[in-house]
Amino acid sequence: MENTTIEIEPQWMRKFIPIWAGQIFSLLGSGLVAFALVWWITQKTGSAALLATATFVAILPEVLLAPFAGALVDRLNRRVVMIVADASVAFFTLVLAILFAFDLIQVWHIFVVMFLRSVGGVFHWPAMQASTSLMVPDKHLARFAGLNQALRGGMNIIAPPLGALLMTYLKFYQVVSIDVITALIAISPLFFIHIPQPKRADTTSVITPKTVLTDVAEGFRYMKNWRGLLYLTFLAAVLNFLLAPTSTFLPLMVTQHFGKGVWELSLVDSIFGIGIVAGGLALGAWGGFKNKMLTSLMGVIGIGVGTLLFGIAPGNWFWLAVTASAVLGIMIPLANGPLQAIMQSKVAPEMQGRIMGTTNSICTMMMPLALLISAPVAELLGTEVWYWLGGSLVILMGVAAIFVPEIIHLERNMQSVAAEVPVVI
Fold first, then answer.
1. What b-and-e string marks burial along 162-194, b requiring 16 or more CB atoms within 10 Å of the CB?
2. Per the domain annotation, does 332 fall within a domain?
3. Strands 423-424 and 197-198, how do they pair?
4. Beta-carbon contacts of residue 71 (< 8 Å; ≥ 6 apart)
């Protein structure tokens, strides 16, 4: 279903922009905490296995809960879901700050809180994305997807050096506490702005395990009928398998392979963010090729090139690693933005929570396996090996996907997967 059949309010920006702007603060706080926690684990342990474990516990909720969270998002009030999810993340972050303040912190505490924060994100992300398609006209979805990528890139620019600066002058618990404040700022607009809800054919108000399982199964059937989406989802799962370890081992690459410190790590992250901003703004202004999948696959190939460059950079060529980070950043919005626009414009509104949750679960399912395999490989052969392998295979897969008709013509082959669904404004 296309959003052109949905009645979007003429003054849609007055409602959407405050919610969208609130996410800026939330992303900043989350970026600060993520950078600080990764650096704390790196400095305290220097262990690739523990860094891999941190990533593992953060993505586990996406693998286990995303399809069910998506089903609940399609049944519940999406505005309330976002409020509860953000409030939960703020609460668990506050608990973590208290543990740091009283010097009670252990590595396993960080793992537990990362897991619980991720549970909140599993509900928030599909609720926000599914709400966007009901508030923003279809012709602007690709541009907002690009701007969202640019926004995330901007946080990558600001958060690492700001985190390094704050850790220099503030106590660690004070740095962590910033995320509590930013989460509350992000929640505030949601109390005053109405978000449209899709009208479902089944209007039962009782949510039971059976209804949730039925909804999840319906989501899988929907994907099965749209064969191109199914192929693309499994392609993304393999790409995540190859690329997940590269982001996890970044602190070790900077400190051990290049012999640098926290400021150089923040520089790599910031350059990566500048690239995302540049790529996101370019996509926001351009909108991509008419065939959105061609834009996305060109971005995938570019990601592979950037990853390979980072891995082959000699230890005394840190400048090449910085350049590779810029290439990666530019390509990520081109790869992700068009896909997000396709999902928001082509998937029926009452199915979007389930489809986004299911695809997210499948895409992240391979990541824990990748971390379990890559950690001993990195300990034995060096972290750069995974960059060589991942970058080369991503390039090959991106090129091959261009010649798969179900993928390259994903939008055209969608046909009548979903019937038109009215929306309650």
1. bbbebbeeeebbebbbbbbebbbbbbebbeebe
2. yes
3. antiparallel
4. 212, 215, 216, 219, 353, 354, 357
Residue 27 lies in a domain: yes
CATH number of the domain within which 213 lies: 1.20.1250.20
State the total domains in the chain.
1
pLDDT in tens, 366-389: 777 787 788 787 777 778 888 888
334-371 pLDDT, tens digit each: 888 777 777 777 777 777 778 877 887 777 777 777 87
Asked if residue 130 is part of any domain, the answer here is yes
Report residue 198: phi and psi, to 5°: -70, 145
Please report whether residue 202 resides in a domain: no
Structural domain including 122 reads 11-197+207-414
* Residue carrying the six token digits 């993304």: 236
Q: What is the pTM of this model?
A: 0.66
- Rounded distance, CA 151 to CA 26, Å? 11
Candidates 39, 384, 393; CA nearest to 245 is 384
